[in-house]
Amino acid sequence: IDRTGGAYDGRLYCSWTRFNNPDRIMLIRSSDGGMTFSDTVLIGPTQTSTGCGPNVIDAGQFSIPLVNKNGNVHVLWLGLALDSTAYCQIHYAIKHSRSTDGGVSFTQLDTILTVSGYMNSNGGANTYSQPVADADITSGPYAGNLYVTFANIGAEDLSGNSDVDFMRSTDDGLTWSNRITINDDGNPNSNAFHPWMVVNEEGVITA
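RE: above sequence
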């Protein structure tokens, strides 16, 4: 929901994955409190790679929309990043797209970070690097910041167990900080996964 008081205040946004192959990330919006919704907007288009020949790669899933202080709409999801070499290497990644016209069109599509993607926690439970994001829409010192957190097995996780990582953007999603780990269980043999996160009215981030 746009709660910024700007031109699109009160607009509702909903994003999801449309199956089946190739998967696509879709979005709809409502300007009348959910009474009616727009036609679908394609955010995560089908992907191809020069190294993959005619193969089409799914866009991904687990999307989440958010609205920044300036009213721009951001959607993040777990997708795939492709190289452009003859080896056709494919990596799971946190993907990001931005709209500057109230969700009518999405003109920025990029990869934030390569991640481990789908994992197994102790006991065999399936876990995954679903991004959870929020924005600081306060008038405080961090107004306009975007934040994202997700489960991930980084190069430093020598035990092969997942941590909860975190990144931020201070320029409306154009660039992102280096990732940091925010869980502090202190046990390299335990798993941390599936976080949630909110930014409150004072700009305090809680995960």
